[in-house]
Each structure stands twice: as C-alpha cells, then as structure tokens.
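pinging the channel bc i need a second pair of eyes. not urgent but kinda urgent?? the chain im working w is below, pasted from the shared doc
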Amino acid sequence: MEQRAKRPVLVTGAAGFIGSRLRARLEEKGWDVQGMDLVGGPGVDRIGDVRDVALVERLVPEGGIVFHLASVVGIVEVLKRPRETYRTSIEGTRNLVREALRKGARLVFTSSSEVYGDGRGRRIREEDPLPEDHGAWPRASYPEGKLRAEELCRTLVLKGGDARIARLFNVGGPGQDWRRGPVLPTFVRYALLGEPLPVIGEGGDVRCFQHVEDAVSGLLRLGLREEGQGLVVNLGGEEATTIAALAERTGRVLGLPVRIRKVTATQRYGGPSRPCTYRVPDLERARAILGHRPVFGLDRILRDLAESLRRDAVSGEAVGGA
C-alpha cells in the first residue's frame, strides 16, 4: 500500500527514457520530486554525476526515497564506454547506499534482466542462481556493474537500511532512442523508412517486451509501498517472441511491407555482443506482492513508437539519418 505521508523523492537519471516518465508520474501523484542527471532536460533540477560524492551527499533527501536509474544505456553506448558503464553502476550506487543509510532514505535500484545471463529456455525467477560469467569485456561491463550494484543494495539492507531492486526486462515505447541499439525503435524506424530490418543471425533469440508506462507503474508500486525492504522483483512483459517474429510483426502492426537483412552483432552494434537465447521473466512475484501486471501489449508498444517517430519527423527531428 502506498504510504500516506509523502516523503521527498530524488530520481537519478531523470532525463532518461524511463526516468523522465517516472518523474512526471510522481509529480502527478503529488510527490515532491527532485531530478538529477548528467544532462539537462524538463525533469532535471540538478546536472551532475552520481559518482560525485559531495553532490550525492547534498541531494539525497533526509528520510526520503531515491529512485536510482542513472546508468549508461543501450548496447551501442556500453560498447563505446565500458569503463564509465561499470564505474557509474558501482561508484554511483555506493555513494547512494552510504547516504541512504546515513539519512534513513529508501533506495530503489533499477537493475537489469542482463544479470541473469544467457537465459535458461524457461521463464526466469528472481530466486534462480545468477551466472558467474557474463561474457567478454566490454559488453560484460553492463551486467557485471549492475550485479555489483545489487550487492551494495543488499549490504544496505543487512545494515538495517531499506533497499529494493527492480530487474527490468526489455522496455520500449514512445521517445526511445534507436541510436543506442534497442531493437523495438530500430525495427519501427527501418519499417517507416522502407529499409530492411537488421536481424542478428537467424533471429531465433527470444525476448519479452514491456511498455515504458508499465515499467514506471511497477517501479512506483515497488518504491512507494511501506513494505518491501530487501525485495528483488522482475518487471517485464508477458508475451514472448523471437526477434525474427518481431520483425514480421512490426510490419503487420504498422501495415507496412518489411524485408529482413541478416547481420552480425558487430554490424548491428559496432562491436561484439554475446547472444542471449531466451530471456523471459516470471512475473508471479510482481503480481503476488506488488499487485502489478503489465497493461499494454507488444502491438501497443509498436504503434506508440511509430507515432512518436512520425511526430519527431514532422517537428523536424528526421526519422532517417546515419
């Protein structure tokens, strides 16, 4: 149950795809929110880095709630900036854990389904053992950084503090930047341009996608309820699909003819990326404890992405480009 007395809230990564929507939803609910990010934006009050100890000391609210989303996002960016990816997860989370413990604040950490590794051919549960090996650097910098940050959150709980962990599975929706490498906006963009959709290999890898608004709803349910200290929960979509089937579906939903172009991971992302054959969440814990289940299906995500890309093109932000 959401608490009655509204505590001050800090959102890190508030300019991001998910963070900006989280900030807006919190304000709609009447929460006093401050946002920080490395870059400016409508939801950012303070430009800065979570690795800045002095800044974190000033911004973590006494007795408040911290939604920690600051991270390097997207395979393309991770491959370019592995050191920053790894250090941001670990050093930023360490700073927030330290201040949350000192100030009695609640920390809600957005981890990733990538901590589960390659997948197991079945729906993944939170209690499943995590792999020791997440592949080669630089790609492994993202899941390994998230995993180390989770450990820091558990340390906060062991010391009597309040930390919760959301393992987000693939998120998509309007405003998502295709340039960072996510498959949904990439497929929609290419379909709108009439260009072949780039599919790695045979496209047999299986994924499960959730709308960004569903991801935000899950984070709110996790972070704003009084109970939940130490909880780890999967947040994701319910419908699994292969990437090849997703390419065909993109065309069908948008009413556009599509062609597929087989590529390698290096061609797709600019560097090698370890394949993940089956990454689909078990969502029973989110349903049972948080009362959360996704509302929007995959077709809605595709339509919303197409609408936002068309709107960007009309406003002067071209759908095309290198």
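so Residues 62 and 102 are 9 Å apart (CA to CA). and DSSP finds eleven helices and 14 strands in the chain. — does that match what u expected or am i reading it wrong
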